[in-house]
Specification:
The complex is a heterodimer of chains A (1200) and B (332). Chain A has 39 helices and 37 strands. Chain A has 1200 residues and is an alpha/beta fold. Chain B starts with a strand and ends with a helix. The chains are: A alpha/beta (1200), B alpha/beta (332).
Chain lengths: 1200, 332
């Protein structure tokens, strides 16, 4: 946030750059989190919480709504009542605002929304950037202005806030999601004085006059009829006609204030260009730089930059095009299947046609125009691709409706490009850093950018690429530094500095592929400079020699340990970068790093600063160059990405994606409709745990709790026939199975760890109750370093998996024994220690072979369905969960639809069965139709009957029999589960959830309640508790958590349970069982500890216990079936609160944060939270005593 | 009745005060302590260990998860004023200084010579009138000698003295061999006062869970006896002002401590139990007792029962055990 009077440089991303202006020019802000726009709302929330003023010296009021639709309605109301208003959104969120956008535009209400443009979900969801969302708004009547970089995002925010007031047309200001929104760049910040100078006080007064007021009432929102609507609708035309000129004046005024000049359409390139590319967004810079480079070499190329897309001003467009142009390519960053062409292309074609009709064509000869698509879902758009577009225009018949950046080997639309073409100047330092999400690489790089961008005259750029997995996630940082503004919105491919902060990446990724010839390669290595060469694989050695790389090593973890930094290597690796990259003189760089450390840590105390200083100083002594080698000496090859045993699709497609080479896959490699094979996580052996659990069979009590709590299904239990052991590997551990069932005596039992899939979260160790009596430190499960036992345990695990699974019919659905059911959800990318996934794993164990999961967007859809690999898998019979994700907001309805479809299919199949009964046999038909499928045995028997049915139908050829054979599997009971987080259930999807609860159909709703929007970074939901700090509740949530269970219970017809597996796992299993068997709607609210709570996840179970003991999370089951037995429907499963809430609160940073930032408010809110707990417990207790009438007849009299 | 005493070079209107406790976290309680007649406010401790842990906690649970997903730059809001740091403590000093007129003694708890010693300077700059150093340390390493343990305390005292000019007292544990010698060394190293003694969490064992359970019981008057003895012994040979801490629950307890040589009387358990106003009650009863016994001032009785002045010095030195034994023999 900038409030100084003199304009200064900052290194920030476009989200912050844009929000900084939007905040300062607004009075009211309504928000809702959605990637990649959430950081804009988060910044505003933090500024508002800190009491920062806008340019009119008042703090903007900020409100979070339940959805973007809610935001849009709120905005409409705020505008109608006369406050300067803004919001931030993207993608599906923007779609939810469309109805109000029509209203706001129709009423000519001045307003600006800022959009970090993101892909709309089609065959798949994508969080990344393109223009498919904003293009869905081009018909709403909003003006649309596009920024191409962070400076423009900052500047255009100012321009649009002024222009909307002058023109009365609302604006959608957008820039490319991620590529622009998240790229850190050096830009000039507008001061408050400058911002004020761009705004027009008179227009603000006029806006206030538009506001509705009972002091001078007018009415809006009338309904009009055929006689008047049309004419009245045409009344706005003049406002759109005027807008381009008004905006142009606005740009002029801005230029006088800030010194930066922009136009509605801007041309750059050769003044007599024969080929011109028309493009919008960050692609502009790539095309412009490429054109400039090729023009130097004699070409005549140009780029027409589109800023104002709506209203599309033909006058300004034509004026900007050079008359020399012979061929035009229009690039759209969106796809409109079935259209003549994409939107910008169609507009350009139309503009040229209209200009021709009006006699306004000024060209030497009429240009050829082609359109093409690029950059969907942040697909790279590089200079060589821009060159391919120019090259296409040189063809006699340029390819139209082309794509660029991919290989379309199906419809042949893609343009070929030369991967070797490169335009980057030699005086730009290009660096690539491979790090772990947890090792601070990204943070250190952002800090380096700050140092260079803000402390020197150089320019800097940073862009960060993340993993799809949240545990052991890798990050790749792409940094550029140079003497001129950096205009390269694409990844670094030929780096002169490559750093690898984790040794094991060398065996997983082609790290050195990024290195240019002669580049410096910095490696964090436990091997010393004179030893490391022999440790490299053949591939690494070859590349180092071929590219003549200068290799440096440092044992950063040792330096960190020795200097008291624990496991923190970020400052050490940053120091190495400055010491050997030459981007700054070494002494100056060190001084700057220290200055930054002081700035960051001074408030934390001198000790931390001194430790960091020591780390910096010792780094230089520990950094060594590896002597140059000339010959490959290694015999070790890089291991294959996936096992050679993996199926063909995994080998050909998934493996490339895992190796960061997914860009190379052609169109033909993919399913056309987003359908994807399941059970693929098992092929990705991530080996991310430094330590893994090791089982001591001699003290194990066979409680299976370790398997119950494992979030990744990486520790499993099995009993099996002793004969199986004859071929067991030598180190395979086994003991006699403890059982009370006579026929199972003599069986063997094993707890086995999946060494390469375990994330090392330690929940299993935390839960293990079996302690060695002489040495209680040692439990039946202990953590041990993974590398020494990786191989033996891998073999043991394979052996374990191949042991026969216990007969499902024999397994009781009780907490201990359910762990003998095979999990059909395994090795997901969820955080280590995730509190949600144990529930899902359990669900797949109990019902996975007949399970439908409708999954709301959020964490569970990301670890559940984000490629390259997905965790839902199949059993030996090939059955497993049918998982899918529709949207965020519609999940209850989506799962409900699946239930309705299933019910109809069952119903139709039953009808067919009855119709064909004479041929099939009455006994079988009757058995199929009346089967008791309430147990595993019942399910299995029914499956056998379906097999028998099919056998009878084999020879039949009548239509009904053929249909019956097709649908026969639906006769086996299916279980429909609707799964999502609290953001969905409490907020955006609550309307649907409520409706589904009221409908009473047989669906089971599982709410994984983390009490925040976890996936987007911990924003508050209505589930967030009183007194917790969350994003969008930075000053502490001051309202109580919504009691969703009570709301659901109020219907009296739904099964409702509140569970916490860490506190009472038996109740969790019981609730799942009851919900599934309940022939109506069930709702389970499941406590899910989460990294957003701010504590170590290995303590998650302890914290769950405390949550229950303090009454923070009372456990209960409300079962309408109890009514018939004359019992109270609500049964409390936990005791009255016996521990003070403060004991629970003290363990989590989300609560402690408020105690630190605002002790008085913390005291008040936490006090109220304790009171709420007591009163709620009282309410539950009373409720649990109420016996309701069995049935109430229609006339209100009791029928019981 | 003249109740003024000199403690750490500070002129206190009463020897009674609340010892280091959570009470200082509340301005309301602090004001009530002053109203009840407290001669000074001793703040809760700023713990080196806590600073360290909070720093690592923030690192582990906030920083380390801040770059794991493209969708979330962090999982908690970045608040400028969220400091896992001494800032809040320093602000509390300022607030207390503004709220009361009696001297404010800050308390610093640490066992290493790290950069945290610097915090003493910030504490002084924030306006504290004195610092009470709490150097409690469990020597579990068999290689460490008694000399090492004492040197650690002396070094920390010296380091703190180097950065501040306000008086620094040292709060001791009773577990020192040759305590008078060590107390003298502390005085020579510049300790402006000694506080006798610290009380600690004691580990208990859970025999079901095979686990350790830390426990802390509030004190009672029986704990005073150990302190009376050492006050009497140390004050006999040293001029360094001393405070008693632990076991003072009544006016009589306070009187005994002062007679044994204490200049200041710190109370925690009885105030936690009965509220800050209890200090006023004790003060009133003490004055009443002094008046009834025709004392002119508190100072008059201070040290009257020290080893130097009391009639039967052997009573403090060794004879208790003997006398009890003899008493049993006579009873036979």
């Amino acid at each position: 946030m900038q409030t100084k009077t003199k304009s200064s440089f900052a290194t920030i991303d476009a989200n912050e750059a844009c929000a900084s202006v939007a905040y300062r020019l607004s009075e009211t802000i309504a928000i809702y989190p959605i990637t990649p726009s959430s950081p804009m709302a988060e910044s505003c929330d933090e500024w508002s919480a800190a009491g920062k003023n806008n340019v009119w010296d008042t703090v903007p009021h900020l409100v979070q709504m339940q959805s973007e639709a809610g935001v849009a309605g709120t905005i409409h109301g705020m505008l109608q009542t006369g406050t300067l208003t803004t919001t931030f959104t993207a993608s599906q969120g923007l779609l939810l605002m469309i109805p109000n956008m029509y209203k706001i535009a129709g009423e000519l209400l001045p307003f600006v929304m800022h959009v970090s443009a993101r892909t709309l979900a089609t065959h798949a969801l994508s969080i990344f950037g393109d223009h498919s969302d904003v293009m869905a708004c081009r018909q709403t009547g909003f003006a649309m202005l596009c920024s191409a970089n962070a400076q423009e995002a900052h500047d255009f925010a100012a321009v649009t806030h002024a222009a909307t007031l002058r023109s009365r047309v609302p604006f959608l200001h957008f820039f490319d999601g991620f590529r622009t929104s998240h790229e850190v760049a050096k830009l000039l910040i507008l001061t408050n004085d400058q911002l004020l100078a761009t705004q027009d006080e008179e227009c603000i007064n006029s806006f206030r006059d538009l506001a509705l007021t009972p002091d001078a009432p007018r009415i809006r929102g009338t309904a009009q009829n055929p006689d008047t609507f049309f004419q009245a609708r045409e009344g706005c035309n003049q406002y759109y006609d005027r807008l381009p000129d008004l905006l142009e004046q606005g740009f002029e005024q801005f230029a006088t204030v800030a010194g930066r000049r922009y136009g509605l359409f801007e041309y750059a390139g050769h003044p007599e260009a024969d080929r011109v590319v028309v493009v919008m967004g960050s692609g502009i810079e790539t095309v412009e730089e490429t054109a400039a480079y090729l023009n130097e070499k004699g070409a005549k190329l140009g780029v027409l930059k589109v800023r104002l897309f709506r209203p599309f001003s033909i006058k300004h467009f034509m004026a900007a095009l050079p008359k020399s142009v012979k061929a035009i390519a229009v690039l759209d960053r969106t796809k409109e299947p079935g259209a003549v062409g994409e939107p910008l292309y169609q507009d350009v074609i139309t503009a040229l046609a209209e200009a021709r009709a009006d006699g306004q064509l000024h060209f030497d000869c009429e240009p050829v125009v082609v359109g093409g698509r690029f950059g969907l879902s942040s697909k790279e758009f590089t200079p060589t691709m821009a060159k391919a577009v120019f090259d296409n225009l040189q063809l006699e018949r340029p390819k139209n409706h082309f794509t660029v950046g991919i290989n379309d080997d199906v419809t042949g639309l893609s343009l070929p490009y030369d991967p070797a073409f490169d335009i980057e100047a030699s005086d730009v330092t290009r660096s690539v850093f491979f790090g772990l999400g947890a090792d601070g690489t990204v943070g250190a790089n952002k800090n380096s950018i700050k140092i260079i961008g803000e402390e020197t005259d150089n320019y800097a750029q940073g862009y960060f690429v993340y993993d799809s997995k949240k545990s052991g996630a890798i990050t790749i940082s792409h940094l550029r530094f140079g003497p001129r503004p950096i205009r390269a919105p694409y990844l670094v491919s030929k780096a002169n500095f490559v750093a690898c902060h984790q040794w094991e990446f060398l065996d997983k990724y082609d790290v050195l592929d990024y290195a240019d010839e002669g580049a410096v390669f910095l490696l964090n290595s436990v091997y010393a400079a004179d030893k490391v060469w022999d440790e490299f694989s053949v591939e690494v050695q070859e590349t180092i020699i071929r590219k003549k790389l200068k290799v440096f090593v440092i044992d950063a973890y040792s330096v960190a340990r020795e200097t008291g930094m624990g496991g923190r290597i970020n400052t050490i690796m940053q120091t190495c970068f400055f010491a050997i990259s030459g981007v700054l003189p070494r002494e100056e760089a060190i001084a700057q790093i220290k200055k930054a450390i002081e700035k960051t840590y001074s408030k934390k105390g001198a000790e931390v600063v001194q430790k960091n200083f020591a780390a910096v100083d010792q780094t230089l002594a520990a950094l060594h160059q590896v002597p140059a080698a000339t010959a490959v000496t290694s015999s070790r090859r890089m291991p294959p990405t996936v096992s050679p045993d993996a199926p063909e699709f995994i080998q050909k497609v998934t493996a490339l994606m895992l190796a960061n080479k997914g860009d190379l896959l052609p169109v033909s490699a993919f399913p056309v409709d987003g359908t994807w094979p399941v059970g693929t996580t098992k092929w990705e052996k991530r080996n991310i745990a430094l330590e893994i659990p090791v089982w001591d069979s001699s003290i194990c009590i066979q409680c299976n709790k370790c398997a119950t709590v494992c979030p990744h299904a990486a520790i499993r239990a099995k009993y099996y026939d002793a004969d199986c052991l004859s071929t067991a590997p030598e180190t395979f551990k086994s003991v006699d199975f403890r059982t009370t069932e006579a026929d199972l005596k003599g069986m063997k039992f094993t707890i086995q760890v999946a060494p390469e899939d375990c994330t090392g979260c330690m929940l299993c160790v935390a839960v293990c109750p079996a302690k060695d009596k002489t040495n209680p430190k040692h439990k039946a499960i202990d953590m041990m370093p993974q590398p020494p036992i990786r191989e033996t345990e891998r073999v043991n695990y394979d052996y374990f998996l191949n042991l026969p699974n216990p007969d499902r019919k024999r397994i009781k659905a009780e907490v201990k024994s359910v762990q003998f059911f095979e999990p059909l959800f395994e090795y997901s990318g969820a955080c280590a220690g995730c509190g949600e996934t144990p529930y899902l794993k359990l669900l797949t164990q109990m019902y996975g072979d007949r399970l439908y999961i409708a999954n709301a967007t959020g964490c569970s859809s990301i670890y559940g369905g984000n490629l390259p690999t997905t965790p839902y898998t199949v059993n030996a019979e090939g059955r497993g969960p049918a998982w899918s994700n529709s949207l965020f907001e519609d999940n209850a309805e989506y799962g409900f639809g699946q239930r309705l479809a299933l019910d109809k299919l069952v119903n139709y199949t039953s009808e067919l069965l009855q119709l064909r009964a004479p041929a099939i046999g009455d006994d079988l038909v009757k058995a199929l139709l009346t089967a008791d499928q309430s147990s595993e045995a019942g399910i299995e028997d029914q499956r056998a009957r379906v097999v028998a049915l099919r056998a009878k139908l084999v020879t039949a050829s009548d239509k009904e029999s053929l249909r019956l054979a097709k649908l026969a599997d639906y006769l086996v009971k299916k279980s429909v589960w609707i799964v999502g987080g609290d953001g969905w259930a409490y907020d955006i999807g609550f309307g649907g959830l409520d409706h589904v609860l009221a409908m009473g159909r047989d669906v089971n709703i599982l709410v994984l309640d983390t009490e925040v929007y976890s996936n987007t970074g911990g924003q508050a939901s209505k589930s967030t508790p009183l007194g917790a700090v969350a994003k969008f509740a930075a000053s502490g949530k001051n309202t109580a958590k919504k009691d969703l269970g009570m709301i659901a219970m109020s219907y009296g017809s739904a099964y409702v349970a509140r569970i916490a597996f860490g506190a009472k796992d038996s109740q969790t299993v019981q609730a799942f069982k009851e919900a599934e068997s309940f022939e109506g709607t069930s709702l389970i609210i499941a406590y899910s500890h989460c990294i957003a709570h701010g504590y170590g996840m290995q303590l998650g179970l302890e914290q769950q216990k405390l949550a229950v003991e303090t009454g923070y999370w009372p456990l209960f089951r409300y079962d309408p079936r109890r009514r018939a037995a004359g019992e109270p429907m609500l049964k409390l499963d936990s005791a009255a609160p016996k521990t003070a809430l403060s004991k629970y609160l003290a363990n989590e940073i989300r609560f402690r944060m408020l105690e630190k930032s605002n002790p008085e408010i913390a005291k008040e809110l936490h006090g109220r939270a304790q009171e709420n707990i007591e009163s709620r417990w009282h309410l539950y207790e009373e409720h649990s005593k109420i016996k309701e009438d069995q049935e109430v007849a229609a006339d209100g009299t009791s029928a019981a | 009745m003249n109740t003024t005493v000199n403690y750490l070079g500070l002129q206190l209107k009463s020897p009674l005060m609340a010892g280091a406790s959570p009470m200082a976290a509340s301005l309301d309680l602090v004001r009530r302590l002053e109203d009840a007649g407290a001669g000074a406010i001793v703040m809760n401790s700023l713990f080196e260990e806590q600073l360290d842990r909070e720093d690592s906690a923030k690192h582990s649970f906030v920083d380390k998860v801040s770059s794991i997903s493209p969708e979330a730059g962090s999982y908690l809001p970045a608040l400028d004023d969220y400091h896992l740091s001494p800032d809040q403590y320093l602000q509390q000093i300022e607030k207390i200084k503004a709220a009361v007129s009696v001297p404010v003694i800050a308390s610093l708890n640490g066992v290493t010579l790290g950069g945290w010693v610097q915090h003493a300077d910030w504490i002084a700059k924030a306006g504290a009138d004195a610092i009470e150093l709490n150097v409690y340390y469990m020597p579990t390493d068999p290689k460490e000698t008694d000399h090492d343990v004492q040197k650690r305390v002396l070094d920390i005292l010296a380091a703190v003295k180097r950065v501040v000019s306000i008086p620094v007292s040292v709060k001791l544990s009773p577990f020192f061999t040759a305590l008078p010698n060590f107390a003298g060394a502390l005085a020579n190293a510049g300790a402006a006062g000694l506080v006798l003694f610290n009380r600690f969490y004691q580990p208990d064992i859970d025999i079901e869970e095979l686990d350790i359970r830390p426990t802390l019981f509030l004190s009672d008057s029986s704990e005073l006896l150990l302190r009376l003895r050492w006050l009497a012994i140390l004050s006999a040979t040293m001029d360094t002002p001393m405070a008693v801490s632990g076991g003072v629950h009544t006016a009589h307890d306070a009187i005994k401590a002062i007679m044994a040589g204490a200049s200041a009387v710190q109370m925690v358990s009885c105030l936690l139990k009965n509220g800050p106003e209890h200090l006023g009650k004790i003060s009133k009863e003490m004055v009443q007792w002094l008046e009834e016994h025709e004392y002119e001032s508190v100072q008059q009785m201070r040290g009257s029962m020290s080893l130097r002045n009391c009639a039967d010095r052997s009573g403090f030195e060794r004879a208790n055990y003997m006398r009890v034994l003899q008493g049993w023999r006579f009873a036979d």
